[in-house]
């Protein structure tokens, strides 16, 4: 079965969704992600959805759920690069993803994660802000 | 019975036309300032000709039948040009209705046989002309609606400029009423500009929005939510005191959105926030991908 690769970058995990998400793929991703967060003791998760053109309520809920799961495991999630059409669709579907952090691109997402971890956990802040 | 109308129209064409014209020219509501006598004459003649032709088929009740195609086409062109010339819809329809009198007169003169038949003929002709007269009104209205629709489209294009105020800050000055159609255009333009300029802050200025009701507020909140999903924050500015009062009375909850009274205040806030949170970007703009 296909799996979406999860890259480890220091304290963060990075997921780039480049294919159409279907139910099995989404639940496999959630499994993998939670396992890896626990194993690497990751502090942040970055989900890049800039290649995602089509979205439905299922994907929307999947993003919200993934973020909630990560939060339980003490990792912050940032969703980056959402396309305008996708954003409009999600809003029209009534999914505001209010618990999910968002950023325009990967760079800013990274910055946001560093900042948040710096704020929430002073000990982990090894010059990440500088 | 229908044939006698057709016969009358064919035989007494000139008589009817003369009578009709003199009546139209002597009518009180003749718009001599808008249309010349020769124009009126040629229009009357053309209408009478196509009507006579159509009636010869023996159908005088269904104006949507194929034999009336040329009549309807003639009336469509007529109604459009009258509308452009500045006639009112009732004046346009009166043109058709005014044919009744000369036609009935001619029918009475020719039909010397049966009074019952005469009444039936007159009724049938009456119905036919009523339908044709109403048809001109319909076309008149349609042409007006087309104009309105075109203007709406043009306004839609003109009214949604997104301007970049600063690096990373875009502003969207909204002018005019916000309806669903406009909101979607506004939303798309704003989000597209956010992507293109990689802006993290968007100022939506509603100084030019005359009224804010629950629907407009809902549209605004939708736009803000969509921008947030893309990673950009929105500031709503230009809320007039009356509108602030209305919003509270309508119990519209804008607590999730940053609001400022003026655009200047919003820009000051935006610059301050940018300066505090992302100091590197102002000095070294990251290359576009």
State the gist of this model:
Chain A has 130 residues and is α/β, with parallel strands linked by helices. Chain A has helices spanning 23-40, 57-72, 84-92, 106-120; strands at 6-9, 12-16, 44-48, 76-80, 101-103.
Q: What is the CATH topology assignment of the largest domain in chain B?
A: Globin-like
Largest interface (C-beta under 8 Å): A-B, 23 and 23 residues
Quickly count the helices of chain B.
12
Strand order of the largest sheet of chain B: 1-2-3-4-5
Largest sheet of chain A: 5 strands, mixed
CATH class of chain A: Alpha Beta
* Fraction of residues in helix of chain A: 40-55%
CATH hierarchy, class of the largest domain in chain B: Mainly Alpha
Query: How many structurally independent domains of chain B?
Result: 2
Span between termini of chain A = 42 Å
**Percent in helix of chain B:** 55-70%
Mean pLDDT of chain A: 85
Second rung of CATH, namely the architecture of the largest domain in chain B? Orthogonal Bundle
Biggest sheet overview of chain B: 5 strands, mixed
CATH architecture label of chain A: 2-Layer Sandwich
Strand content range of chain B: 5-15%
């Amino acid at each position: 079965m296909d799996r979406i690769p999860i890259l480890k970058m220091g304290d963060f995990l990075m997921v780039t969704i480049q294919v159409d998400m279907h139910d099995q793929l989404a639940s496999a991703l959630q499994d993998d992600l939670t396992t890896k967060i626990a194993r690497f003791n990751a502090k942040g998760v970055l989900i890049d959805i800039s290649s995602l053109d089509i979205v439905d309520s299922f994907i929307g809920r999947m993003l919200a759920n993934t973020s909630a799961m990560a939060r339980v495991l003490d990792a912050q999630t940032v969703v980056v690069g959402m396309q305008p059409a996708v954003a409009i669709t999600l809003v029209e579907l009534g999914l505001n993803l209010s618990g999910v952090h968002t950023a325009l691109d990967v760079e800013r997402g990274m910055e946001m994660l560093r900042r948040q971890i710096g704020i929430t956990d002073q000990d982990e802040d090894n010059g990440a802000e500088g | 019975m229908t044939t006698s109308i057709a016969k009358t129209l064919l035989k007494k064409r000139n008589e009817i036309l003369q009578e009709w014209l003199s009546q139209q020219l002597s009518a009180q509501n003749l718009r001599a300032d808008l249309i010349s006598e020769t124009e009126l004459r040629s229009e009357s003649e053309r209408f009478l000709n196509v009507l006579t032709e159509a009636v010869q088929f023996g159908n005088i009740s269904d104006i949507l039948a194929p034999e009336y195609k040329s009549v309807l086409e003639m009336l469509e062109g007529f109604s459009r040009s009258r509308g452009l010339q500045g006639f009112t819809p009732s004046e346009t329809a009166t043109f058709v209705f005014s044919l009744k009198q000369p036609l009935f007169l001619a029918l009475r003169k020719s039909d010397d046989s049966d009074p019952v038949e005469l009444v039936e003929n007159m009724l049938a002709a009456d119905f036919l002309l009523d339908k044709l007269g109403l048809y001109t009104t319909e076309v008149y209205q349609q042409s007006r609606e087309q104009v309105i629709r075109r203007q709406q489209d043009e306004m839609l294009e003109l009214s949604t400029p997104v301007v970049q105020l600063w690096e990373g800050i875009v502003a969207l000055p909204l002018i005019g009423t916000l309806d669903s159609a406009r909101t979607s255009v506004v939303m798309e333009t704003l989000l597209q500009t956010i992507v293109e300029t990689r802006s993290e802050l968007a100022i939506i200025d509603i100084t030019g929005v005359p009224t804010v009701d629950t629907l407009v507020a809902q549209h605004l909140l939708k736009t803000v939510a969509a921008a947030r999903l893309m990673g950009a924050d929105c500031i709503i500015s230009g809320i007039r005191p009356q509108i602030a009062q209305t919003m509270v009375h309508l119990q519209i909850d804008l607590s999730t959105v940053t609001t400022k009274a003026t655009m200047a205040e919003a820009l000051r806030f935006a610059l301050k926030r940018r300066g505090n949170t992302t100091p590197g970007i102002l000095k070294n703009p990251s290359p576009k991908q």
